[in-house]
Amino acid sequence: MPLPLEDLFNDVVNKAQFGLGLTTEALAAAANVEPAALEAVKDGAVDKAVLSRVAPALQLHGPSLIALAENAWQPAPVSLEGLEQFNTAFGDMTVNAYLVYDPATREAAVFDTGASAAGIVEKLRSLGLTLRTLFLTHTHADHVADIATVDAPAILVSEREDHPGAATFTPGATWTLGGLTIESRSTWGHSKGGTTFVVRGLARPVAIVGDAIFAGSMGGGKVSYADALATNRKEIFSLPDDTIIAPGHGPMTSVGEEKARNPFYPEFK
Questions:
Q1: What is the pTM of this model?
Q2: Residues 6+ apart with CB under 8 A from 38
Q3: How many CA atoms lie less than 13 Å away from 161 in the CB half-sphere?
Q4: Do residues 101 and 85 lie in contact, with contact meaning Cβ atoms separated by under 8 Å?
């Protein structure tokens, strides 16, 4: 059964409103809707007329937002040799971690740990893989909760967001993993050191993005909403359309699907 989307349509509305620093009264006035109707939408009521007015006031793509409200879209399933996704419960959330490996050399890297890395360790064993590195997309608790279980020879995190036991790198750094290459790109805004890791050498390129972007949404701009939007545009949407996006929550998606479906990026529609 596919993972559900991480965010509902009203999560998108609330994230955009918070990111833009708009009060409900100011947003209602800008969208020319009644505050009570806006509050109902923010609480999950599907009102396409209100959504169509609110979307441009929030710099969102209206049809994509309405499609989310109507549950009209789910990204295509992803299956790729050399890429494994792991889902674990962390409080009331489900968080993702990833295993990437070179099918030829059996060298592997792990990206984040989720709440429990037991499944990752078992997969490393069952596939006969040699773990080289644990990469951290960012250091929020749900993504680094089980570092000890991974027991990686090296742990790496952006220099903008250190973590005990981890060495740091400057965004733009690259590594090799057997015949694969891994490139780091700064996609900060949700966190101060948020990093996207672009893996090349498998049948499709893969971008492991942490909470920078989700299928049909994005991580909240907790540090800087404007920079979260801008770095996603620059560092993720510049990748080829067939690039798999492996997010920290929710199902995997692709650059092309997010250009077509993500309400936060109307310029690609």
A1: 0.98
A2: 24, 27, 28, 31, 50, 54
A3: 24
A4: no
Contact 51, 69 (CB under 8 A): yes
CA 100: distance to chain centroid? 16
Q: Are 228 and 212 in contact (CB under 8 A)?
A: yes
The overall longest dimension of the chain from CA atoms, in Å, is 61
Kindly report, residue by residue over 143-176, the tens digit of the pLDDT. 999 999 999 999 999 999 989 999 999 999 999 9
Instruction: Determine the 3-state secondary structure of 155 from DSSP.
Output: strand
In 3-state terms, what secondary structure has residue 209? strand
Structure confidence by residue, pLDDT tens digits, 218-269: 999 999 999 999 999 999 999 999 999 999 999 999 999 999 999 999 999 9
Residue found by looking up tokens 């990204």 in the block: 75
Pairing of strands 83-90, 253-254: unpaired
Strands 130-135 and 206-210: unpaired
Q: State the Cα–Cα distance between residues 147 and 134, nearest whole angstrom.
A: 8
* CA-wise closest residue to 153 among 189, 126, 129, 186: 129
Distance between CA atoms of 224 and 79, rounded to whole angstroms?
A: 33
Residues 79-109: tens digit of each pLDDT: 999 999 999 999 999 999 999 999 999 999 9
Q: Which domains does the chain have, with CATH numbers?
A: 9-69 (1.10.260.40), 83-268 (3.60.15.10)
Residues linked to residue 93 through DSSP beta bridges, in sequence order: 90
